[in-house]
């Protein structure tokens, strides 16, 4: 915490030096005394300033004026500095690099009195979603005569949770109102609720039919009892699984696949909730489950909050593409056994250094199955890049428990390829990856998984259309 | 008002005590102007000019005549330093609360300086060490001034603020605010 000289104090020191030289050259003792006096004046001021710095208590308060911060929307921040002594201060509030200053000024400069704090209000525009911490602030204290300055570091520890953009949320709500979403067929689980909706047909009365289902008009016309049949709709508990691994969080052109996944998950959750389907959510990364909400009616807010709290995007130098050497686990029987059993033994307690032994997805499926006897709809959003064979194995386990699985898979290259950055080598690589991927997805489709591939511009319509009528 | 009175006092003392030539008090004009124009640089340059040009006639003052030296110091040098303080202080001038510790410390080191000078002039009288040359006296004065003041000017602040040393009695920000 060094005390620094200002230009005025440097000038005074220079003035003393000039007076000393002058007095020496012209044998004038009074000028030398003036020079000495200036030096002692500076020393006194310095001592007084250091004393003030030891005594003073500085408080910094930073608050967000809006309760909720959204990406791309202005959020106002108010900063206030207080002190129990009179002192000159100058500070510029720092903002996270993911934020852009939108309006106002972050600078606070002036004399701080105990009874009158200084403050400023400015607007910032968050550019990304996630948790962000404001950096510590360096407050420069100025001596009363502006001869010295000294820094004080203060950190109010402001953490902001930036949620998805208002536009995305609005779009999700609009779609939830517009899209008709139903699952027909009989429920396979006691937890699921089945109800009848649209008229289907008329048939002969059979003993045991409900009295209110008898079609009296048709009965009088045909002189026999007829029973009305209705379509059966199921309220199927749905679990939205969001892959939050590194490849999903990779930031490219100010957007990540995870952001897109969150946007789609919000839309799906709201649509399902509007039709009274119980919605739950589970997020996982390479090693563990990050957050989960059990499916229940009216808990869509918990699902949305969980989605908003997913990890921050990460910035990498450039997109490396999927692992070219990714092959199905093979080798001797011991290795296959360890690869298959490893993830279940780890239980997400250890980081996995081998892609074949990642345990996040297994943990996620395990967390679903702990409280569930199957017969659920599982919406899995993953880019299939972390370990697609683990995904396949986990899905097949889930299918055995009579769950219906819908896989929504963002195509990575549509996020990363840019027209001006196209090279022959990249195109070849993208094509090769596409071929591999299609083969993999074909296998999944054959095993009964509904697969929806999405690009970077997908707004959710196709996804909702694809899952509108999931017949049993 | 007190600022202009100090400048006027310096002008009168210079004319009466040092030299009746009005040219020597001309550098005090920028000092007065700086109070009106609120430009500290002009005032400091004026004081620098006064300390060199205005006091150039008083070249016969030396440590050998302590009475004359003290009278010049109290009549001219100290008011000049007050003028520096007035130039640097933002208007309106208020006598702020003085911290006793730095004041005592600075007074002590000045007293030490004069004690050292007194010892040296004693040595000068008995002719053991110094000749009665003003330049040598000035050299000793400069050396001692630098010796006494530089440790305070160039030291770095030790220890933290009061926040770190003891818990505050009253929080600066009320949590319920």
Features:
heterodimer, A: alpha/beta, 5-stranded antiparallel β-sheet, 36% helix, elongated, B: 177 residues, mainly alpha, 7 helices
Textual characterization of the structure:
- The complex is a heterodimer of chains A (472) and B (177).
- Chain A has 472 residues and is α/β, with parallel strands linked by helices.
- Chain A has 13 helices and 20 strands.
- Chain A has a six-stranded mixed beta sheet, sandwiched between helices. Chain A has a five-stranded antiparallel beta sheet with strand order 1-11-10-5-7.
- In chain A, α1 runs antiparallel to α2 and α3 runs parallel beside α6 (257-274).
- The longest helix of chain A has 27 residues, at 29-55.
- Chain A is elongated, with a radius of gyration of 33 Å.
- Chain B contains seven helices and no strands.
- In chain B, α1 runs antiparallel to α4 and α3 packs antiparallel against α4.
- The termini of chain B are far apart.
- Chains A and B meet through α1, α2, β2 and β4 of A and α3, α4, α5, α6 and α7 of B.
**Pairing-aware structural class of the strands and helices of chain B?**
mainly alpha
Shape of chain A: elongated
Question: What does the radius of gyration of chain B come to?
Answer: 21 Å
Sheet having the most strands of chain B: none
**Unreliable segments of chain A (pLDDT under 50, ≥5 consecutive)?**
none
Oligomer: heterodimer
Largest sheet of chain A at a glance? Answer: 6 strands, mixed
Count of helical segments of chain B? 7
Number of strands of chain A: 20
Outline type of chain B: flat
pLDDT averaged residue by residue of chain B? 78
Determine the number of helices of chain A (DSSP H or I, runs of at least 4 residues): 13
Rg calculated over all Cα atoms of chain A? 33 Å
* Relative strand content of chain B: under 5%
Which bin fits the share of residues in helices of chain A?
25-40%
| Most extensive interface, chain pair and sizes | A-B, 57 and 62 residues
Biggest sheet: strand arrangement of chain A: 17-16-15-18-19-20
Structural class of chain A: alpha/beta
What is the ordering of alpha helices and beta strands of chain B?
HHHHHHH
Task: State the separation between the terminal residues of chain A, measured CA to CA.
Answer: 71 Å
Strand content of chain A: 25-35%
């Amino acid at each position: 915490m060094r005390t620094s000289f200002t230009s005025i104090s440097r000038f005074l020191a220079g003035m003393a030096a000039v007076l000393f030289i002058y007095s020496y050259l012209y044998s004038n003792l009074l000028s030398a005394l003036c020079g000495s006096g200036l030096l002692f004046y500076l020393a006194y001021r310095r001592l007084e300033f250091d004393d003030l710095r030891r005594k003073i208590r500085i408080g910094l308060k930073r608050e967000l004026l809006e309760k909720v911060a959204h990406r791309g929307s202005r959020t106002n921040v108010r900063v206030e500095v207080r002190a129990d002594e009179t002192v000159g201060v100058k500070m510029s509030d720092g903002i996270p690099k993911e934020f852009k200053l939108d309006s106002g000024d972050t600078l606070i400069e002036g004399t701080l009195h105990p009874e009158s704090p200084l403050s400023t209000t400015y607007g910032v525009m968050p550019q990304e979603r996630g948790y962000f911490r404001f950096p510590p602030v360096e407050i420069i204290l100025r001596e009363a005569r502006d001869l010295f300055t000294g820094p004080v570091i203060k950190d109010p520890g402001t953490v902001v949770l930036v949620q998805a953009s208002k536009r995305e949320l609005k779009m999700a709500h609009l779609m939830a109102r517009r899209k008709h979403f139903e699952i027909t067929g009989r429920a396979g689980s006691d937890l699921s609720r089945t109800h009848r909706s649209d008229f289907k047909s008329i048939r002969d009365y059979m003993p045991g039919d409900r009295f209110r289902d008898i079609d009296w008009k048709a009965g009088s016309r045909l002189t026999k009892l007829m029973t009305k049949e209705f379509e059966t709709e199921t309220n199927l508990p749905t679990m939205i699984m969001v892959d939050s691994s590194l490849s999903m969080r990779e930031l490219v052109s100010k957007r990540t696949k995870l952001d897109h996944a969150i946007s789609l998950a919000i839309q799906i959750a709201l649509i399902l909730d509007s039709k009274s389907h119980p919605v739950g959510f589970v997020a996982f990364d390479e090693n563990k489950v990050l957050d989960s909400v059990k499916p229940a009616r009216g808990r869509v807010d918990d699902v949305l909050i969980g989605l908003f709290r997913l990890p921050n995007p990460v910035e990498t130098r450039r997109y490396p593409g999927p692992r070219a050497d990714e092959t199905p686990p093979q080798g001797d029987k011991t290795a296959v056994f360890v690869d298959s059993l490893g993830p279940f033994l780890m239980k997400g307690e250890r980081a996995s250094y081998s892609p074949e032994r990642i345990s996040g997805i297994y943990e996620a499926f395990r967390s679903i199955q702990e409280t569930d006897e199957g017969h659920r709809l599982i919406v899995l959003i993953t880019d299939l890049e972390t370990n697609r064979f683990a995904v396949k194995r986990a899905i097949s386990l889930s299918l055995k428990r009579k769950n219906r699985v819908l896989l929504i898979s963002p195509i990575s290259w549509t996020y990363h390829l840019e027209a001006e950055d196209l090279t022959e080598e990249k195109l070849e690589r993208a094509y090769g990856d596409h071929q591999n991927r299609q083969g993999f997805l074909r296998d999944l489709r054959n095993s009964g998984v509904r697969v929806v591939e999405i690009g970077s511009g997908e707004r959710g319509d196709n996804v909702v259309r694809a899952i509108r009528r999931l017949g049993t | 008002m007190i600022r202009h009175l100090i400048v006027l006092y310096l002008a009168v003392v210079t004319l009466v005590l040092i030299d009746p030539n009005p040219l020597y008090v001309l550098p005090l004009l920028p000092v007065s102007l700086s109070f009106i124009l609120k430009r500290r640089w002009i005032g400091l340059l004026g004081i620098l000019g006064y300390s060199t040009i205005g006091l150039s006639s008083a070249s016969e003052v030396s440590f050998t005549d302590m009475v004359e030296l003290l009278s010049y110091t109290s009549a001219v040098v100290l008011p000049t330093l007050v003028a520096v303080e007035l130039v640097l202080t933002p208007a309106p001038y208020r006598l702020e609360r003085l911290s006793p510790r730095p004041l005592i410390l600075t007074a002590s080191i000045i007293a030490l300086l004069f004690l050292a000078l007194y010892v040296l002039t004693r040595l000068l009288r008995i002719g053991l060490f110094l000749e009665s040359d003003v330049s040598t006296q000035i050299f000793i004065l400069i050396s001692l001034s630098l010796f006494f003041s530089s440790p305070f000017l160039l030291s770095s602040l030790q220890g933290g603020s009061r926040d770190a040393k003891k818990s505050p009695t009253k929080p600066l920000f009320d949590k319920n605010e």
